[in-house]
Amino acid sequence: MAGSERQSSASGLLQPNTRSVTTSDRQDEKAVLALEVEVCTGGEEEGEEFREQWTRSLDFILSLIGYAVGVSNLWRFPYLVLRNGGGAFLIPFFFFLFLCGIPLFYLEVCLGQFSGISSMFVWKVCPLFKGLGFGMVIVSGMACIYYNAVLSWVIYYLINSFQSQLPWSHCGHWWNTDLCIKYRGMQPDNANASLGINISLASNISQLTNFNQNRSSETVWKSISDISLSSPNDTVYAYNSSLNKSFTGLGEIRYRSAAEEFWQFNVLRKTSGLEDLGSLQIHTAICLLTAWLLVCLCLIRGIKSLGCVVYVTVLLPYILLTIFLVRGLMLPGALDGIVFYLKPNFSKLTSITVWVEACVQVFYSLGPAWGGLITMSSFNKFHNQCIRDVLIASLADGLTSFYGGFVIFAVVGFMAKEAGVSVTDVATQGPGLALVAYPEAISKLPLPQFWAVLFFLMLLLLGLDSQFGQFETVVAGLMEAFPRQLRNKRVYLTFGLALLSYMVSLPIATEGGIYVFTLLDWFVSAFCVMITSLIECAVIGWIYAFCVMITSLIECAVIGWIYGVDRFSDDIQMMMGKRPGTLMRLCWTVITPSIMLSVFIFTCAKYTLPVYDGYVFPMWANAIGFFISMIPLMPIPVGMIIALAQQNGSLLKRLQSSLTPAPGWGPANKKYCPLYNERQQHYSNQPHWFISFIHNLKSKIDLLPDKISSYLLLCHEQESLLPRL
């Protein structure tokens, strides 16, 4: 539909009151002004000609896919499927994908495309919640800081993959302990005894492994009582291959595979806890700097360079995944792993925990409420059919997770068969799967260096894609905050922010960095995004219409109820010529925020404090974590206070004015400003769509008894005619 046709048809349907607002009206009726003011203005002074746009629509689609599909699709989703009922887990996963993930994904993309504004200032749609945009930028910046640590580990593995012998394929290195075994499930031999350790006398002994950069590893044994070591020939023990433990008559010893010791004692070189961060690890610091340099080079020209990079970073991982799947299916035991992965256990669906984990995984994977979706879609052409892009990207994310499970569990099944253990004993999640289990399996293949390079290159590309959207959110927000100062200095801003982020993230590069990483990942992604999403739905559905979950809840509230979903639907029609369906509007206003609120309450009720590899974080560390999780939420109440203070009149009038779009809010294509302003006046006299829906439903229910009576009367008359016939 052409722009003129859309404008004329919409004007005829709405028939708005187009009277002008006089000075006396502003003085006497401030509450009415808040609803009728022409918030959208056109002209070159708005800077619209400087807004970049995607060169091709495919650039945007690939960027969305890259943003949504990340390393968690490989190292988290398959394990969740195995633990929560196999193939049965797909039912709650796709249920929440369609009722929560896609609606929020679509909401944010439409919001960014309509306004042409990044996530920091897009909340001019409801000035009372303008702090939400700052919170999104903060949470994206915080995520960038610790997410790049994952890339630094992957880069370190990638570099070591070029060695003539993979360093995690065997023991005997300076970082290996005396309890190292080549592969998990292997029976240790008496070679350990020649090192001066009598395994059978290891009772009541705690093993503490200390490392120093200037010397080889030493295993320090602390005995509760004096123990006399007997001859190595007297060593007797029983070995359990499924647990990598040796059980003696006096105690047990846990063995580690060479791959696990490489991760723990070479890559991390971790200390005993967060209380002791230790020294800076040079190898990690260099790899972390390399990761930030890659991000900067890919975003040096903004979406222009990003639009070119995604053709490699998004498409190549799918080619590599397919290669690994074909190779994995050729391994013995691969079919057993896939059967374990897919075999449905429908009884698991009776557990609410399974449904909650499915919902959390949808949010964690798709990435709404971080601000990246709004920022990337703000560079779209105004009439782009973004519903198509949303469906492609959302389904690509869900199906990639499912597809990646075949790749992972084909190899896990192979490892289980090689070790003679169950698949469940090998399967794990998180870095333990991608950086321990899978590298160990690769070391057993012919030409392991070739497969290792391909695998870690794939992980690096998957991680970079997700990092692009988060970092661009911060850069674009600052450029819009200071347009005159930063518009022509994007390169300096990008590298400056990266350098600052690198300096802040250096604690993760210390010996105790894994504890810092765990603390940040646990608290930032657990609270902030969920709450933000709830507020977002409320504002769009009801007003315009913790961090990530809280942000999501706020989004639903703002768009669904404050701005008004009717108004937002008209905005979408202005862009694409068609309003969203009733189901989508119900999701924005009722279904999605209700589900998220329920999940958030359940998560809080079942919340457990972070633990890493048996280490329980002290209370002061948890207090720091809670404080960090509150940082992105602090701008929300601060923004509310500022928004109310900037208005005039009574508290009620101030509140009413701050719930109305601020001047400057409107369509990115300024030729639609007159139409948008007419609709603003129209909606000032119209009830909310949900209220109208309830009234219509109530009127139909009130008429239902009359219809039933008429129907029964008709049936009675027909029955009375039958004898005559």
UniProtKB/TrEMBL annotation:
Disulfide bonds join C171-C180. The chain crosses the membrane at residues 60-77, 89-111, 132-159, 280-300, 307-329, 349-370, 390-413, 450-471, 491-509, 541-565, 586-608, 620-645. One of its GO terms (biological process) is amino acid import across plasma membrane. Coiled coil: none annotated. Na(+) binds at G66, A68, V69, N73, S365, L462, D465, S466. It is a multi-pass membrane protein. It is found in: Membrane. Residues 1-24 have a biased composition (Polar residues). It comes from the Eukaryota. This is Transporter.
